[in-house]
Amino acid sequence: MAMAALRREGRRFAAPLISNNPINPFRSSFAPAEEQALLGVRSISTQIVRNRMRSVKNIQKITKAMKMVAASKLRAIQTRAENSRGLWQPFTALLGDTPSVDVKKNVIVTITSDKGLCGGINSTSVKISRGLRKLNSGPDQESKYVILGEKAKAQLVRDSKKHIELIITELQKNPLNYTQVSVLADDILKNVEYDALRIVFNKFQSVVSFLPTTATVLSPEVVEREAESGGKLGELDSYEIEGGETKSEVLQNLTEFQFSCVMFNAVLENACSEQGARMSAMDSSSRNAGDMLDRLTLAYNRTRQASITTELIEIISGASALQG
Amino acid sequence: MTPRPPTPSTIPSKLTVNLVLPYDSLLSAKEVDMVIVPATTGQMGVLPGHVATIAELKPGVLTVHEGNEVKKYFLSSGFAFIHANSVADIMAVEATPLDQIDSSLVQKGLTEFTQKLNAASTDVEKAEAQIGVDVHSALNAALTG
């Protein structure tokens, strides 16, 4: 009867089973929550636990959905990124990869995502950009940033505001294509003076592994200088030039084309890495939510069983008090 | 990236061709006998053992000769590198096989851009219209020639 009355009222009480006070059956049956607080709360009310469980379950559902979305976006963009890998290889075969080149004007192009919840890839890119800047800071050397993506903007605006030349966001509003990237590359080349462009991005190796990479594109004057001094570009002079009035004109077109090709690949690879990182971040998030849900379920059951036990004890001790 | 083979001492028998576009590699490490690229200075034939060259390309037809078969692609400009080890890299922004081009659309485009060129006032407009005329006349020549 007492139990039925309690249920109608919709009250749940935690069982002070391990409390030092002797259980006063009448008092604890109708004790409101505040009295429990006065006694010293040893366990939580089941209502609170149930609320927490509901919200954790919702979060788990949301992160699972986000993982599926990221997986489907990754599938779509992965083939395009892999197909674009052949585009920059001829340039590297001709001009080599010279990240250690010593130039006066460095421009660091940092490629990051606009949206968050994608693990640590954006922070790694920004860390590397900062590192490159420190590496290339000398008496007459200067480095500037060109930022692609909101995440790098948020991090770099804080401490390097006066070194930022250009900020471009909302790159992925329309699906990535070469025309858009070449217009972007054209913008950068027109507005920024450079001797070497260093593009920092995350190369997509597999769904769980992303390599922070930097690709170096030299300006035509630096290419000529390096070709004359020998070394990696030393063989460039042995190539005949077809087309164009002068060698420097062809070299200029060449480096501009190289920049747009490398940018296209870099942007695609970074987009793939972003989706892959988001997949694994959301996956670990749903797993954590599942673990938390398990723990909460155990706590809830313990609480519920303890309160049932308390009710039984109250009833039985009440009955035995009446008898004896 | 796979490393390139070193320059051999004798002229190899075949030319290795890589034709890459932003969204695909149409030919990768294909062994052929000869390719003819549309350089800005005219059609250039490339055989194995060709001298190392960097060629700027204009819109035109790329012909690939492999044994008895001849494949033609229309390229929108790009670059071609011919290395001393008989590897030819051709980078273009677009390349389509000739049989996929609709000649009526080509004619329409040509007349449209010629009109635009005549009506153009600023340098930018003139340049854009000129590019359109060049590409369409090259397409036309490719389909008819």
From TrEMBL, chain A:
GO cellular component: mitochondrial inner membrane; proton-transporting ATP synthase complex
Source organism, top-level taxon: Eukaryota
InterPro entries assigned: ATP_synth_F1_ATPase_gsu (IPR035968), ATP_synth_F1_gsu (IPR000131), ATP_synth_F1_gsu_CS (IPR023632)
Function: Mitochondrial membrane ATP synthase (F(1)F(0) ATP synthase or Complex V) produces ATP from ADP in the presence of a proton gradient across the membrane which is generated by electron transport complexes of the respiratory chain. F-type ATPases consist of two structural domains, F(1) - containing the extramembraneous catalytic core, and F(0) - containing the membrane proton channel, linked together by a central stalk and a peripheral stalk. During catalysis, ATP synthesis in the catalytic domain of F(1) is coupled via a rotary mechanism of the central stalk subunits to proton translocation.
Signal peptide stretch: none
Membrane topology: Peripheral membrane protein
UniProt entry keywords in alphabetical sequence: ATP synthesis, CF(1), Hydrogen ion transport, Ion transport, Membrane, Mitochondrion, Mitochondrion inner membrane, Transit peptide, Transport
Gene3D superfamilies given in the database record: 3.40.1380.10, ATP synthase, gamma subunit, helix hairpin domain (1.10.287.80)
Protein localization: Mitochondrion inner membrane
GO molecular function: proton-transporting ATP synthase activity, rotational mechanism
Quaternary structure and interacting proteins, as annotated: F-type ATPases have 2 components, CF(1) - the catalytic core - and CF(0) - the membrane proton channel. CF(1) and CF(0) have multiple subunits.
Recorded family membership: Belongs to the ATPase gamma chain family.
Protein name in the entry: ATP synthase subunit gamma
Main location: mitochondrion
From TrEMBL, chain B:
Protein name per the record: ATP synthase subunit delta', mitochondrial
Keyword set, alphabetical order: ATP synthesis, CF(1), Hydrogen ion transport, Ion transport, Membrane, Mitochondrion, Mitochondrion inner membrane, Transit peptide, Transport
One cellular component (GO) term of this entry: mitochondrial inner membrane
Organismal lineage: Eukaryota, Viridiplantae, Streptophyta, Embryophyta, Tracheophyta
CDD domains per UniProt: F1-ATPase_delta (cd12152)
UniProt organism field: Olea europaea subsp. europaea
Domain ATP synthase F1 complex delta/epsilon subunit N-terminal per the UniProt entry, residue ranges: 15-87
InterPro entries to which the protein is assigned, alphabetical: ATP_synth_F1_dsu/esu, ATP_synth_F1_dsu/esu_N, ATPsynth_dsu/esu_N
Similarity remark: Belongs to the ATPase epsilon chain family.
Cross-referenced NCBIfam families: ATP_synt_epsi
Keyword Ion transport: yes
Database matches in Pfam families: ATP-synt_DE_N
Role noted for this protein: Mitochondrial membrane ATP synthase (F(1)F(0) ATP synthase or Complex V) produces ATP from ADP in the presence of a proton gradient across the membrane which is generated by electron transport complexes of the respiratory chain. F-type ATPases consist of two structural domains, F(1) - containing the extramembraneous catalytic core, and F(0) - containing the membrane proton channel, linked together by a central stalk and a peripheral stalk. During catalysis, ATP turnover in the catalytic domain of F(1) is coupled via a rotary mechanism of the central stalk subunits to proton translocation.
Localization terms from the record: Mitochondrion inner membrane
Gene Ontology molecular function: any one: proton-transporting ATP synthase activity, rotational mechanism
Subunit-structure text: F-type ATPases have 2 components, CF(1) - the catalytic core - and CF(0) - the membrane proton channel. CF(1) has five subunits: alpha(3), beta(3), gamma(1), delta(1), epsilon(1). CF(0) has three main subunits: a, b and c.
